[in-house]
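Project outcomes to date are best conveyed with an example. Our students and postdoctoral researchers have been running inverse folding experiments weekly, and each run begins with a structure described purely in tokens. The record below, which covers 245 residues, was selected by the lab manager from last quarter's runs and is presented without edits.
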């Protein structure tokens, strides 16, 4: 038997579908601003993928902020990563073993006093060297540094509020394997993650970090090999990424 719908029944069904569609649309409109807010909570301020060709002198920042770095003459490019070939304290080498990203006048490359994350992927067989830093021990405005002492890696934030340092714990970091490192700084702590797992945390006020020094990859920019060692790093770095917020 065929079912015959009256016009009234049809109007009722159409009204129900229209009501449901309107409700779904309203739900999407409410959800959309929340998604945008979440996505804009953090901002990448530096992204060096280090995929430059052999002989390149500029490390291109792909974050969109154009914070390009200067590649020193002793840094080898062309293998999909940057190779820092020697472990030395020789001040005569200057910036040749480094990649340096100049300080940004607008302060966008400084951690400031808010949330700040450093992420990188690297490998080494050496238990020594400063891998990445902005500022040095006596720098006005503070210092942030990732260094590789004794086969580990530590992340330190030093300001007028004090020093907070987190490390890689028992993970063997100088075994020649690739490792991802993420150092997350908040106003009250510094936390280290290695290969996706938390390995250390320091709970301490981190203050405001804002200096005029460049981001230096592979060692110190201001050193003389006597009173201040250069602490050049030896190994490969695949990428360096900095995020605010």
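After processing, the design step wrote out the following sequence:
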């Amino acid at each position: 038997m065929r079912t015959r719908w009256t016009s009234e029944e049809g109007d009722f069904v159409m009204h129900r579908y229209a009501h449901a569609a309107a409700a779904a649309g309203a739900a999407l409109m409410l959800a959309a601003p929340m998604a945008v807010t979440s996505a804009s909570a953090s901002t990448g301020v530096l992204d060096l993928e280090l995929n430059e060709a052999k002989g390149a002198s500029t490390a291109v920042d792909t974050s969109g902020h154009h914070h390009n770095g200067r590649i020193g003459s002793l840094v080898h490019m062309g293998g999909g990563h940057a190779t820092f070939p020697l472990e030395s304290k020789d001040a005569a080498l200057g910036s040749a073993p480094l990649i340096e990203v100049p300080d940004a006048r607008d302060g966008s490359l400084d951690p400031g006093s808010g949330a700040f994350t450093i992420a990188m992927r690297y490998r080494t067989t050496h238990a020594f060297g400063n891998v990445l830093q902005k500022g040095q021990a006596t720098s006005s405005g503070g210092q942030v540094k990732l260094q590789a002492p004794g086969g580990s890696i530590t992340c330190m934030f030093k300001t007028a509020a004090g020093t907070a340092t987190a490390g890689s714990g028992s993970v063997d970091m100088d075994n020649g394997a690739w490792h991802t490192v993420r150092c997350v700084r908040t106003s009250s702590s510094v936390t280290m993650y290695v290969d996706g797992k938390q390995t250390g945390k320091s709970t301490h006020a981190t203050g405001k970090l804002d200096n005029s020094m460049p981001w230096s990859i592979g060692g110190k920019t201001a050193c003389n090999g006597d009173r201040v060692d250069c602490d050049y790093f030896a190994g490969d770095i695949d990428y360096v990424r900095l995020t605010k917020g």
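The first strand starts at residue 43 and ends at 48. The helical segments are 7-39. The training component of this project remains on track.
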